[in-house]
From TrEMBL:
<dbReference type="GO" id="GO:0046872">
    <property type="term" value="F:metal ion binding"/>
</dbReference>
<comment type="similarity">
    <text>Belongs to the tannase family.</text>
</comment>
<keyword id="KW-0858">Xylan degradation</keyword>
<keyword id="KW-0479">Metal-binding</keyword>
<keyword id="KW-0719">Serine esterase</keyword>
<dbReference type="InterPro" id="IPR011118">
    <property type="entry name" value="Tannase/feruloyl_esterase"/>
</dbReference>
<feature type="signal peptide">
    <location>
        <begin position="1"/>
        <end position="23"/>
    </location>
</feature>
<keyword id="KW-0732">Signal</keyword>
<keyword id="KW-0119">Carbohydrate metabolism</keyword>
<keyword id="KW-0624">Polysaccharide degradation</keyword>
<keyword id="KW-0378">Hydrolase</keyword>
<dbReference type="GO" id="GO:0030600">
    <property type="term" value="F:feruloyl esterase activity"/>
</dbReference>
<dbReference type="InterPro" id="IPR029058">
    <property type="entry name" value="AB_hydrolase_fold"/>
</dbReference>
<dbReference type="GO" id="GO:0045493">
    <property type="term" value="P:xylan catabolic process"/>
</dbReference>
<keyword id="KW-1015">Disulfide bond</keyword>
<keyword id="KW-0106">Calcium</keyword>
<dbReference type="Pfam" id="PF07519">
    <property type="entry name" value="Tannase"/>
</dbReference>
Length: 538
């Protein structure tokens, strides 16, 4: 008996090792949620071994890779309103127990999109060891399509506006606890655009849900963003009017002139305006001379349009609606809101959420319509109230890290500044808090809306485009920066953005640059311009 025991224990060890793999897989495939505090049931589970092909697509997001670490995919069906029998689906992607960093990461959506953010679940949560959660917001649709909201689909509107994310977060945390046998120790959130709005909504309405919330260029004010976008578009439309500005003119004429007038302000002529607030662009220098080829200059109506597009937008009674575009992003603006009216979101907001009139066209926008959006605030989607004290204050001690690209072509970067400033003013006037202790805004020179432009890899969809952060450390990776702030009290002063050559991760780093904390800007101080160290935040 005794002589057998060494062999036996080797056998037991081998058995345990294989059982570990076997048991996680079994635990995954047999997982059920016991006694959930919200009405949620497991709809499906799938275990993916390391390097298994993960190919998942929905109308909002997709992923197709075969280099992820092992994880368990749990799909939940959540009843959001029992009377209406409305449901939302959430997915929780769970790394192997030994690979789990002990944290929960909620991931946001985009536009009017319905669909779990599977790209961010894979490329951000699983790659970095988080238990990730994303909701489909209660419906399936492309980000541009708002037709699911009407007529009068109030439960779907509420689910998309706030309810699905909150219920999914509560249920997702229970999945984490029951799967690992212990709770997460901190909860984070990351989202851009509608995802940014969702993050701010969580901070305001459910301050307990997350400890750190990363907010990219938020669509937090649809009642003003929608009319602003329509207004900007109307400055140049219709296509056959003299004021129409073709995309080539935006790039070759207007952008070229912006660079001529303003590129050197930050100390470096590199095609990027590090701080477009410093640029007082004068389009008059482009006025057509007699006989000049009109594709190389601007007529008087086009000059007026450019001025309006770069100006703050007020209602006819002078009420503030939205900040204008900043100079520097002209290459993207005709593909954003100016010109091809691909941006169906904005009229859909009025057609399916506010007016319930599918015949609404953008030329019908007037002050009454704008006011109606503000009064109805469908599903209470907007986050305008500057009081975030319940989240930021000592009762919860939460952190918000916000970012926006100066060349944002869908939501003027001025919106991020406006929201930050209103929260700042409120916090200062009504509390003893120093906003810098809990809420910081970073601006990214030359970066477009959430995912394109010259880029910082923080943006999760960038990861799904093959552009992970240059390093997963807290300087290069906004998620790690937030974790360090929450868990070690080390607040980020700057963040380092990485541009991959040709926006292609395999082609190596093109340059790095600091993202400065608002209201600072980055100035070139000399040295290698491809190196973040050659810039100062001032
Ligand atoms: C569960 O997920 C797997 C793949 O992840 C899929 O093949 C299967 O159809 C799903 N089952 C249900 C009932 O949805
Ligand atoms: C997954 O692929 C990577 C890279 O090819 C490799 O290093 C690793 O050993 C693979 N893991 C497994 C479990 O196959
Ligand atoms: C649930 O749905 C019913 C039926 O549509 C509706 O009357 C009720 O107001 C909804 N409740 C909530 C909390 O949304
Ligand atoms: C349009 O429908 C939504 C959703 O039911 C409702 O909240 C809103 O008040 C309606 N708008 C008007 C003008 O009746
Ligand atoms: C005007 O300029 C555009 C672009 O440079 C060129 O394609 C076009 O041929 C020119 N038109 C005339 C009439 O010269
Ligand atoms: C504003 O537009 C709405 C919707 O088209 C229309 O019903 C209303 O009469 C307009 N109001 C004014 C003052 O023009
Ligand atoms: C990225 O670059 C590699 C070569 O380094 C190339 O094979 C690949 O096709 C490129 N990817 C894209 C999306 O262009």
């Amino acid at each position: 008996m005794l002589s057998l025991s060494p062999l036996l224990s080797v056998g037991v060890l081998l058995l345990q090792a294989s059982q570990l793999v076997f048991s996680t897989q079994t635990r995954c495939s047999t997982f059920t949620l016991r006694n959930p505090s919200v009405n949620a049931v497991v709809a499906n589970t799938t275990f993916f071994k390391a390097n298994d092909t993960v190919a998942i697509t929905n109308p909002f997001s997709s992923i197709d890779v075969s280099d992820l670490p092992a994880f368990c995919r749990v799909v939940l069906a959540i009843t959001t309103n029992a009377t209406a029998k409305s449901t939302a689906h959430a997915e929780i992607w769970l790394p192997e127990p030994q690979a789990w960093n002990g944290r929960f990461l909620g991931l946001g959506n985009g536009g009017f999109g319905g669909g779990v953010n599977v790209a961010d679940l894979g490329f951000v949560a699983i790659v970095q060891g988080f238990a990730g959660m994303s909701t489909d917001t209660g419906h399936l649709s492309s980000p541009l399509d708002g037709s699911w909201a009407g007529p009068h689909n109030d439960n779907a509107i509420n689910d998309w506006s706030w309810r699905a994310l909150h219920l999914s977060t509560v249920a997702g945390k229970e999945v984490v606890q029951q799967y690992y046998g212990k709770p997460h120790h901190k909860a984070y959130y990351l989202g851009c655009s509608t995802g940014g709005r969702q993050g701010l909504k969580e901070a305001q309405r459910f301050p307990e849900d997350f400890d750190g919330i990363i907010v990219g260029s938020p669509a937090n004010w649809m009642a003003h963003l929608s009319p602003w976008g329509i207004h900007v578009n109307l400055q140049v439309m219709p296509f056959d009017s003299p004021r129409f500005i073709p995309a080539d003119t935006w790039t070759n004429v207007i952008h070229a002139e912006v660079l001529k007038q303003c590129d050197a302000i930050d100390g470096l002529e590199d095609g990027i305006l590090n701080d477009p607030r410093k640029c007082s662009f004068r389009p008059e220098t482009l006025t057509c001379r007699p006989g000049q080829n009109t594709s190389t200059c601007l007529n008087v109506e086009q000059i007026t349009a450019v001025h309006k597009i770069f100006s703050t937008y007020f209602e006819t009674n002078q009420k503030f609606i939205f900040n204008g575009y900043y100079p520097g992003g002209e290459v993207g603006y005709p593909f954003g809101l100016v010109g091809t009216f691909a941006f169906q979101i904005l009229p859909d907001y009025y057609r399916f959420f506010v007016l319930n009139d599918t015949s609404f066209t953008i030329d019908q926008l007037n002050d009454t319509v704008i006011q109606l959006g503000e009064t109805i605030n469908p599903g209470t989607m907007d986050v305008v109230d500057p009081d975030l004290t319940a989240f930021l204050g000592p009762a919860h001690n939460g952190k918000i890290l916000q970012y926006v690209g100066w060349a944002d072509q869908l939501i003027s970067s001025g919106n991020s500044i406006h929201f930050y400033e209103t929260v700042h003013a409120f916090t200062q006037a009504n509390t003893q808090l120093d906003i810098d202790d809990s809420y910081r805004l970073f601006t990214a020179p030359g970066m477009q809306h959430c995912l394109v432009g010259w880029l910082w890899s923080k943006r999760l969809r960038q990861a799904s485009m093959g552009m992970p952060p240059a390093s997963l450390d807290a300087e290069h990776n906004i998620v790690a920066a937030m974790v360090r702030w929450v868990e070690e009290g080390h607040a980020p002063e700057t963040l380092t953005a990485t541009y991959w050559n040709h926006n292609n991760f395999t082609e190596g780093v093109g340059f790095t640059r600091p993202l400065c904390k608002y209201p600072q800007m980055s100035m070139f101080k000399g040295g290698n311009p491809n190196d973040a160290g050659a810039f100062l935040c001032v």
